[in-house]
Amino acid sequence: MTNVKMKVNGKAVAREVPDETLLSEFLRENLRLTGTHIGCDTSQCGACVVHVNGKVVKACTTLAVSLEGAEITTIEGLANGDLHPMQVAFNDNHGLQCGFCTPGMIMAGVDMVTRYKAEGRELTPEAIRQELEGNICRCTGYHNIVKSIQDAATRM
Amino acid sequence: MYPVKYHKPDTIDDAVAALAAGNEALVLAGGQTLLATMKQHLASPGDLVDIRGIKGMVGIRTESDTLIIGAATTHAEVAGSDVVRKHCPGLAALANGIGDRAVRNMGTIGGSLANNDPAACYPAAMLALGATIVTNTRQISADDYFQGMFTTALDEGEIITAVHVEKPAKAAYAKFAQAASLFALVGVFVADGPHGVRVTVTGAGEDGVFRHEGLEAALSSSWSAEALDGVEVSEEGLNSDMHGSADYRAHLIKVMAKRAVAAA
Amino acid sequence: MSSGIGKSVKRKEDKRFTTGKGRYTDDHRMDNQAYAAFVRSPHAHARVKSIDAAAARAMEGVIDVLDGHQLTGDGIGNIICGWAITSKDGSPMNMGAWSALATEKVRYVGDAVAVVIAETQSQARIAAEAVEVDYEELPVVAHVADAMKDGAVQIHDNAPGNQIYDWELGDEAATDAGLKAAAHVTTLDITNNRLSPNPMEPRAAIATYDDAEEHYTLYTTSQNPHVARLVLSAFYNVAPEHKLRVIAPDVGGGFGAKIYIYPEEITCLWASMKTNRSVKWTSDRSEAFLTDAHGRDHVTHAQMGFDKDGKITGFKVDTIANLGAYMSLFSSSVPTYLYAPLMSGQYDIQNIHCNVRAIYTNTAPVDAYRGAGRPEATYLVERMMESAAREMDMDPAELRRRNFIHEFPHQTPVLMQYDAGDFPKILELAQEAADVAGFPARRAEAEKRGKLRGLGYSTFIEACGLAPSKAAGSLGAGVGLWESAEVRVNPVGTIEILTGSHSHGQGHETTFAQIVADRFDIPVETVQIVHGDTDKVQFGMGTYGSRSAPVGMSAVVKAMDKVEAKVRKIAAHTLEASEDDIVIEGGQVKVAGTDKAMAWHEVGLAAYVAHNLPDGMEPGLKETAFFDPVNFSFPSGAFICEVEVDPDTGQTKIIKFTSADDFGTIINPMIVEGQVHGGVTQGIGQALLEQVIYDEDGQLLTGSYMDYTMPRAADVPFFDVQHHETPSPNNPLGVKGCGEAGAIGAPPAVINAITDAIGTNDLAMPATPQAVWRALRAASKPIAAE
To answer: What H or E segment, with its residue span, contains residue B249?
Structure first.
């Protein structure tokens, strides 16, 4: 057991957990932030994607204990009062159906828009599709997810 | 997962000591393969030694014409590094094609090389570029390092600390991905470097990454995609599984080799 | 109005999903919750000689280890298939016994033999590995060809030759005569690849037993919680219905896989009583691949005859369907009544005969997956049409046109009476949108780049709405196929709709609210949808078979009819007018041609305060209705797929995918198009990427996303979705259902495009790069790299 301390969605948290606790379990079971979902066990579906120190990470393939002092943002912490433009865009463009992959899609979407803007690169639909290689959706056929991210990019 | 004890040493000596003292201890470098394996109860180390806190393990720099990449440097860092892009753009591009963005943010070059998955991308680059694998005890040439699938020259308790890559004149990688896993069904790295012209293949060989003499010979005489047209790629020693039979892989080796040459 | 029928109203339910506040089953946590982990067979076929749980019991955190003998000893019944199919010789289908925990034999890899209940999930899983099961391995038949061989090992004692039934539909003699008279006969042997539905939320269950009340509560990932309760109660003897509450909270996709009642839910309920703890089980993806019901898996030999003008003279189909090791809830109906009646497609065919043999194998159960039977039929019919056109050197669109049905209703020789449609019109729409006229130039341009372009059609019919009950019952269904609704107008005028339909991504909280807002001309925000809880909703048959709109919404309309009648009476009484003069609009209930009016909410208030109601009227404003339609609905579509094949690698890229759909009345175009996008992508997945593979020992080779290829964003293009509405006459809204069209229509469009590109018809799904490369080589097309 280790007393793991990190900052989650702007708040300092500390929990005594077994060393094998994954970040996804830490968020869901210890902090009860259940918006981070588990859709596979091979690190491919991306339903668990969160931001760790500003970078996308698969929470299901990261030990909580290894993130001592890290700053984590989950889907619950993305909105700052008002909804984040990415969240608004997913609603406006019907970028979700069952909603299960959505937190991961939104976290990945925010990351790619931020990165491309920082690098001065154009986030084309083709680039969005390529960037989504680690996020699987079974409902939407991706059409409206790509549109949502395109739309959000104009608002972020 | 089975219970495990986590260690995060500050020095290589402490890491070596933790590995030695641990119960079937393993190095945790990025965890993108190891943790997935542990989740499925296919690995059960009693201790994990996280090497990412050791000074000097992360970072990219050059010393004259040698690129030095710390073992715990992530794929995303390699892919995004101006130094790597300048030194060997093919290597940066290769790193940018491993896994997905989130995996690239955690997975490390040292972890990939220590695991030596037969469908991993990095081994192809290291062998083609004639890289040197630096450990806490010695320097191992890539030619000696890769010893078959999931098998390397690393001794028990030995930890990769960096890789050294001399600047090639030309180098590029072309991967045909296995559609589900996005690992290489066939990946071919071509390089014209200090160790001559090399063509390496990952994903296809029964024994992991290998050099292809026929393609190397053809490219040595003329560095062009057309030079490869007449080369026979045998299916002997190639994997046959539900994702690709040996004859298809043999065919793809040539197609990918030509594409890599065109991109170099 | 802005939020009524036909408007792309943004989804009311999205906020909780985009902010991480959705509440799926695994997000719930009960007091006193323990965890279940199943001990599963590593063998595809074996006798269970003994189970030794002593070591597991002694492990940290373990509460109990339970097995199948205890389960059956407590009177828990076998899992059943709810649709009885009669073989053509008059014999009933051979349904083998399926216990939630195997007692004597295991019949597929993943079959559960015991369950460990422990304090944590991790403890349960580790202890499950310590349960020692002594198996005596038996010969394995993992594929239908092996299962049907003489002398093959028999999986169930009551199914000789591993045959479940040998069934037929249609007139064989007339069909043979039609084929004999044909000027041309096209023959195809076709495999419909086995798929795993893969909703992104894995299945889960939390069962709680209240010993004081002898009452159970089950949270579960279900598309139809009332059906789950009915079956758990009536057949599995878990508890009588009034002592069992089933809640399907937010559910992360279903696609059929969450219709059925699986061993895990039954076991969790029973274990919660045995241990007096809440028992939670959450599948991981590996378990999902092993145990979620798979879909498709047909092998078919078919012949289609044509006269000299290209008119179809007969269509004869012989199909072998793999149903896996056990008969899942609706499995028997999928290759029979959901399949053969679709063989007429959009075409006027007088002679059809379809024979289906259903076979047991040592693999996971196979049941309905998005489309269920109709994709298999459509794939067959549409590959036939395209192949025939090529063989007869005709334009494939023209061959279809010559055979289209033009008049409705149309009675096919295979049970169905089509309601409405305009097949030439949707084909024309699709051809224009896809710029078919410009295709030759695009193909020539691609050829210059060394790429092979192809264009493929699929013009298809569906039968949706799964109804009516009487017809379904006469064909063997064990349940009615109606839907129920309750419309509750509150004293403040807001409305709750309680529906037996269940949304697991379809957007009912928006679309159901739209039809209410439209009817009463009130803001969509004042309507709330309640579903998914047997304690709240009167009853329901759930959501599958594209039935929520044609059946579920129709029940709401019927209940609204009753509400409106009462509203009129109250308003007429209050405003001293005739009921016939009352109009409902703009949030008011008015007397036409006067300035006399009540606000909508005043009517609600009047109904509940009951100070001044017409004599004899009951207080309140709440009505219930059950809707049982007179027929299926028949959505139709025309899909055109354009692909480019890289001959060097065999890789197919979908350049453009055009759909023209007739879904009847459209409630919310945005949501309907979303359903098409998703359905088409699953169809593309089947055509290009997905396949469940078992080796000959019955080991699952595609047990994770490392080996089973899910469509990713880069595998699909943007879709061009066109609509043409011919309302269904069989329900009050004229809707037809849109959930399955994409998955039904897309696979043949994709394969017809690829076979057009590569110039050979010998190509099976999934058309992986390797498969296409091999087909190209077999057809001796030039391959650039060689």
So the answer is: helix B246-263
Number of CB pairs < 8 Å for A and B? 79
Closest partner residue to C674 (CB to CB) among A35, A94, A133 is: A94
**Contacts (Cβ under 8 Å, ≥6 apart) of C746:** C458, C639, C641, C657, C679, C680, C682, C683, C684, C686, C687
pLDDT: which is higher, C444 or C784 = C444
Q: How confident is the model at residue C785 (pLDDT cuts 50, 70, 90)?
A: very low
Instruction: Check: CB of residue C604 under 8 Å from CB of residue C490.
Output: yes
Closest partner residue to A66 among B1, B50, B182, by Cβ? B50
Residue C544: band (very low, low, confident or very high) from pLDDT cuts 50, 70, 90: confident
List C residues 269-298 in contact with A (Cβ-Cβ < 8 A). 282, 284-286
Please give the radius of gyration of chain B, using alpha carbons only, rounded to the nearest integer. Answer: 18
Q: What is the mean pLDDT of residues C609-618?
A: 96
**Percent of chain C residues past pLDDT 90, beyond the cut:** 93
Report the alpha-carbon distance of residue C280 to residue C267 in Å, rounded: 10
The pLDDT value recorded for residue C480 is: 84
Instruction: With both helix axes pointing from N to C terminus, report the angle between B89-96 and B246-263 in degrees, rounded to the nearest 10.
Output: 130
Q: How far is C28 from chain B (nearest CA, A)?
A: 22
Quick one: closest CA in C to B40, which residue? Answer: C286
Q: Is B182 exposed, middle or buried (0-12, 13-18, 19+ CB in 10 A)?
A: buried
d(CA C256, CA C197): 7
Rounded Cα distance between B44 and B42, Å, is: 7
For chain C, which chains pass the contact test of at least 3 CB pairs under 8 Å? A, B
Mean predicted confidence (pLDDT) in C162-181: 98
Query: In the complex, which subunits touch A with 3 or more CB pairs below 8 angstroms?
Result: B, C
Structure tokens at C461: 């019919």
Alpha helices in C610-668 (DSSP H): none
The predicted pLDDT at position C1 comes to: 59
What residue in A sits closest to B38 (Cα-Cα)? A20
Q: Is the pLDDT of residue B32 over 50?
A: yes
Q: How far apart are CA C466 and CA C484, in angstroms?
A: 14
CA–CA separation, C663 vs C733, rounded Å?
11
- Give this complex's ipTM: 0.98
What's residue C3's pLDDT? 79
Helix (H) and strand (E) counts for chain B?
A: 11, 12
Question: Is it the case that residue C784 has pLDDT exceeding 80?
Answer: no
